[in-house]
Specification:
313 residues; alpha+beta; two-stranded antiparallel ribbon; disordered N terminus
Length: 313
C-alpha cells in the first residue's frame, strides 16, 4: 500500500527493532516529531493496559507535497504483547470502506488526506476499538535508502507474473532487490489474483526480509547508514522519546515471534465509482477484541489466519 508501498511503514518497524538498538543522541536528533498526532478529543478507547499498540503508516509524501493531502497508503496496527513474547503486525487495506469522523463512509486512507495522523488514528480507533499508544510514519525516499543501506534484500516469488504498471516481470524464484526494485515489488497489484490483498502479503514479505537482513548485519558502516537513512525519514508523535525507542527496540529484539495478519475482508466492491474493500465486520470485531485482550495468539490458533511471508505471489 504505498503509492502502493506498504514496505515503508513496514521498514519503520524494522528500524525500531534493529537500528534503534544502536540509537545515540545524534540519531535521536534526526528523528522528526509531530505535535498533535495523537487525538486529544474525548471518545477514544480506554487504554487496556495489556501490551502496546503503534499505528505505522507509509505515505507517498514528497518534499514538495505537504503532509496534509498525502495518502496513507500503508496502514498497519502493530501490537506488542504485554508478555513480550510476540509482535503482531496487522495490515488494514488502504481501500477499506469505513466511517471517517466528519466525512462519512470513504476509503480509510482518505482520513490521512483529510486530517493527517490525528484523524487517521481516530478512524482506526473507531474501527478497531483499540487505543493507539504511538504513531510513526516513513516516507518514500527513506524506504529506498534504508534498503540500499543494507545492500538490498532477498524475496521469493512463487509464480512468474508481469506488472504492466511498472513494466516489470517477476520470474518465479528468489530475487535480490535494491531499493528501487523493492519499491516496485511492494507496489504491484496488477495481475495478482487478490489485487491489493496480495500486495499486502508482498509488503509483509519485504518487511520480513528487511528485518532478517538488518538483524544479520554485522558491518558497522552498514548499520550506521541504515539507521541514518531511517531516522532521517521517520516521523513520530511528540510523546515518543529516545528512551521510548530504546525500550521498544530492546523489547522487539527479545521477541520470540513476529506474525503478519490482514484485517478480515468480506469482499471487493464498488462504491461511488471506485473500487473498495468491504471488511468482514464480525471477523474484524473478533480480531481486534483479541488485540485489546492481548490474546492474538489464541485468535491465530483458532482461525489459522497468519500470512505466510517466506514466499509470495
Amino acid at each position: 500500500m504505498i503509492m502502493g508501498c506498504g514496505g515503508l511503514a513496514a521498514g519503520l518497524l524494522l528500524l525500531l527493532a534493529g537500528g534503534l538498538y544502536f540509537l545515540q543522541r545524534f540519531y535521536d536528533g534526526e528523528i522528526k516529531r509531530v505535535s498533535g498526532a495523537l487525538p486529544t478529543a474525548g471518545g477514544r478507547p480506554s487504554p487496556s493496559g495489556r501490551g502496546e499498540n503503534w499505528l505505522l503508516i507509509g505515505s507517498d509524501r514528497r518534499a514538495d507535497i505537504p503532509s496534509m493531502g498525502a495518502r496513507a497508503d500503508t496502514i498497519m496496527l502493530v501490537h506488542l504483547s504485554g508478555r513480550g513474547d510476540r509482535v503482531s503486525l496487522i495490515s488494514i487495506p488502504r481501500d477499506a470502506w469505513v466511517p471517517v469522523p466528519g466525512h462519512g463512509l470513504t476509503k480509510i486512507n482518505a482520513a490521512f488526506a483529510h486530517g493527517g495522523p490525528s484523524l487517521l488514528i481516530r478512524t482506526v480507533e473507531q474501527l478497531t476499538r483499540v487505543r493507539v499508544d504511538h504513531y510513526a510514519a516513513l516516507d518514500f525516499g527513506g524506504f529506498v535508502k534504508m534498503t540500499d543501506a543494507l545492500g538490498g534484500v532477498d524475496v521469493t516469488v512463487t509464480k512468474t507474473t508481469h506488472d504492466p504498471m511498472h513494466d516489470r516481470t517477476w520470474q518465479a524464484g528468489r530475487h535480490h532487490l535494491n531499493g528501487a526494485e523493492a519499491l516496485d515489488f511492494v507496489r504491484q497489484r496488477w495481475n495478482l489474483p487478490a489485487g491489493d490483498l496480495d500486495r499486502i502479503k508482498r509488503q509483509q514479505a519485504f518487511l520480513h526480509a528487511l528485518a532478517s537482513r538488518a538483524l544479520d548485519t554485522r558491518n558497522p558502516i552498514r548499520i550506521d547508514r541504515f539507521v541514518r537513512a531511517a531516522t532521517r525519514s521517520v516521523t513520530v508523535d511528540d510523546s515518543v522519546t529516545s528512551g521510548t525507542l530504546r525500550g521498544l527496540a530492546h523489547r522487539l529484539l527479545k521477541t520470540s515471534l513476529v506474525e503478519y495478519l490482514t484485517a478480515p475482508v468480506a469482499q471487493m466492491a464498488e462504491r461511488d465509482r471506485q473500487s473498495v474493500v468491504l471488511l468482514d465486520e464480525d471477523g474484524v470485531g473478533k480480531l481486534f477484541t483479541a488485540v485489546r485482550e492481548d490474546r492474538v495468539g489464541d485468535y491465530v490458533s483458532r482461525n489459522g489466519v497468519a500470512n505466510t511471508v517466506d514466499a509470495v505471489r
